[in-house]
Amino acid sequence: MTDVPAPNRLYYGDNLEVLRDTAQFPDASVDLVYLDPPFNSNAGYNVLFKSAQGTNGGSGADASIEAFGDTWTWGPSSHAAMMDIASGANRPLTVMMQAMHSALGDSPLMAYLAMMAVRLVELHRVLRSTGSLYLHCDPTASHYLKLVLDAVFGAENYRAEIVWRRTNARSTAGKWPRLHDIIFHYAASPDAIFNPQLVPGDKAKIPHTLITWSDGLKYNTFELTGAGLTKEGESGKPWRGFDPSMMGRHWGNSHSQLDEWANAGMIHFPKNGGFPRLRADEPFDPDARMVTVGDVWSDIDRLNQTAKERLGYPTQKPRALLERIIAASSNPGDVVLDPFCGCGTAVDAAQKLGRRWIGIDVTHIAIGMIEDRMRSGYPGIAFETIGVPRDLASAERLAADDPHQFQQWVCWQVGGFPREKKGGDKGVDGWFNYLTDQNRIATGVIGVKAGDNVNPGMVRDLGQVMKRDGHEFGLFVMKSLPTKGMREEAASHPLVETQWGRFPALQIVTLAELMHGQRPKLPPLIGPMKKAQRVETRKSHQKGSQGALEL
Ligand SMILES: C[S@@+](CC[C@H](N)C(=O)[O-])C[C@H]1O[C@@H](n2cnc3c(N)ncnc32)[C@H](O)[C@@H]1O
């Protein structure tokens, strides 16, 4: 048995490449793997099953699936993955993958399965014999993934198909509403650790939905809206000033039913203006009989719009879900690996439960969010981030190799957050939040130029966006030194007077300055994480302080 070099670690990069570095990821070095790979099943269900040789004349262009800027189309990397599997030692997997390929052809689904299979081989390799793997997916492709997992782990090591009921019923045209995700549990061997989990009887509900009512008792509360917009009737219309369509949702009940509940005092209206929730009839009884958790989990809500832990990352999972998995299949001090870690829910749960952890993600948004999440959640925490630029040369390399990721990374460096989608609005690549004199949060814009072809017109464009959208501050980040024309263009914007000093409205920042630790001079920045709480807790600290302050 070998030990992983130095948990806790966060890797930026493609997990296949990262995992194949056997010095960093020796055989049998991880105790628990949880993976929640991207899967755009809304778009995917129809698109995924369409063959690339189908009606589109085999171009494959309209048969691809967007997922975090990735697309599943059959191509050289799918072919390479199939070759890797065929040249590996796992004969049942080779046969299974070839059979699937014969049935599915060069389709997006087959590309997805090939991508998953090579990664599952590596994840199986790094697991200790006492370890487990949990694969989070949905019914779109779970039936195929189970066959792949059987081949990688051996069908005898299948442990459970967990159904996580994550949402309430909603109306869908002509089919059963989709309420659940699937989480497969496979053990590395019969020696895998398993700690049964207990919850209080049938009243079990997760604590974060509990609210203390005016009678002093705790009650469970439930969401009143369902996912998706609807144009039908009043379900998409505002009720008592709350408009569900603003969040892409609709009311699950009629306005008259909502009125009835509200009049009976059954609806909780959060003081922070968050969305109302329905109260349970009976108070929560913490002494209810404890029962063992089975393979259907309906007691963990998905993150609702007002959940405190919500970070705004699409597909973020509730920490309670990961806590259950980690508590069941690892012990304190064990190493938990999430190779598709997103905004770091597994990492956060592992830290909370005293496990060591490793996260891998291929976007700078995710890595930046996790760094921020862990530092703000666990002050003084030690971890290493690997694969992000450390010096000017590696930052320039990132700019040349992947301008979009470079833009994301720069936005985090200056204390802001990037646009999620590629393509800018007149050169806007991100935003930052800062504190105004009135202790309110305002937004500034960030433009990032990864290329060498930069001219004063681009600085002017950013200034125009600022004027058009009413932003007081803007940052223009570029690789090389600005020309005189660019500096003049930036200086044509006036200095902004604030209680923390006077700052240039439009500032040019160079990559070299960033790499030397210099940051733009701005009023106190508010990180994207839990910005509202931060304003509240830091208000007094900020009053009267001078100069730029990094929160
Ligand atoms: C469904 S999200 C995971 C969400 C996560 N469970 C959470 O709670 O935040 C999938 C993640 O996988 C990442 N990803 C996609 N392809 C990847 C790859 N080849 N290597 C590493 N990460 C990848 C995406 O950037 C995305 O953040």
Protein architecture, described:
- The chain is of the alpha/beta class and 551 residues long.
- The protein has 3 domains: 9-197 and 309-386, Rossmann fold, CATH 3.40.50.150; 206-286, no CATH class; 403-542, no CATH class.
- 31% of the residues lie in helices and 22% in strands.
- It contains 16 helices and 27 strands.
- The strands form 7 sheets. A 9-stranded mixed beta sheet has the order 16-6-7-5-2-17-18-1-19. Strands 20, 21, 22, 23, 26 and 27 form a 6-stranded mixed beta sheet that branches.
- It is globular and about 70 Å long.
- The two termini are 42 Å apart.
- The relative contact order is 0.10.
Write the layout of secondary structure elements.
Elements: E1 9-12, H1 15-19, E2 30-35, H2 41-48, E3 66-67, E4 70-71, H3 76-87, H4 91-104, H5 108-126, E5 127-137, H6 142-153, E6 158-165, E7 180-187, E8 198-200, E9 210-212, E10 218-223, E11 225-227, E12 249-251, H7 255-263, E13 267-268, E14 277-283, E15 290-292, E16 296-297, H8 319-329, E17 335-338, H9 345-352, E18 356-361, H10 364-377, E19 384-386, H11 392-401, H12 403-413, E20 417-418, E21 430-435, E22 441-449, H13 456-469, E23 474-478, H14 484-491, E24 495-498, E25 501-504, E26 506-510, H15 511-515, E27 525-526, H16 531-542
Parallel strand pairs: 1-18, 1-19, 2-5, 2-17, 6-16, 17-18, 22-23, 23-26
Antiparallel strand pairs: 3-4, 5-7, 6-7, 8-15, 9-10, 10-14, 11-12, 13-14, 20-21, 21-22, 21-27, 24-25
S-adenosylmethionine (SAM) binds next to strand 18.
